[in-house]
Design brief:
Layout (H helix, E strand, L loop, with lengths): L1 E4 L3 E6 L5 E7 L5 E6 L6 E5 L2 E5 L2 E5 L3 E5 L13 E6 L6 H12 L3 E5 L2
Parallel strand pairs: 1-9, 7-10
Antiparallel strand pairs: 2-3, 3-4, 4-5, 5-6, 7-8, 8-9
Length: 117
């Protein structure tokens, strides 16, 4: 599955939301994708088109123009039947360090983060 977005919206630690880490984007066709995690929770919440799912074992790869989210085949219903989502993004290079920090906070101890930056 694929999605194209102008930029990734992130917050590595939202103190107004109990230190929740959040990555979100909206596709050019109106799709919405979001990953969130509170620091005291062992699972990640993945929201696809406004339908949330709680998952373990995500694998996320970040490059300068692409974010690849891979989930277990058994959890494919969380992404509308697909086990991966490739997001093409135009996030500014100066913002990628914050995207990386956010993904590390979300996946720490519950998933795999791979940097291709």
């Amino acid at each position: 599955m694929q999605l194209t977005t102008a930029h990734l919206i992130v917050n590595p630690c939202d103190d107004e939301e109990d230190n929740m880490a959040m990555l979100c984007c909206h596709g050019d066709k109106g799709e919405m994708f979001m990953l969130t995690r509170y620091p005291d929770e062992g699972e990640v919440e993945l929201t696809w088109d406004y339908e949330p799912s709680t998952l373990n074992g995500l694998k996320v790869t970040l490059s300068a123009t692409r974010l690849l989210v891979e989930i277990a085949a058994a959890d494919a219903d969380a992404l509308g039947g697909s086990d991966h989502l490739a997001i093409t993004h135009g996030t500014a290079e100066s913002d990628l360090a914050e995207v990386e920090e956010t993904l590390q906070n979300i996946l720490k101890g519950t998933g795999t983060y791979i940097s291709e930056l």
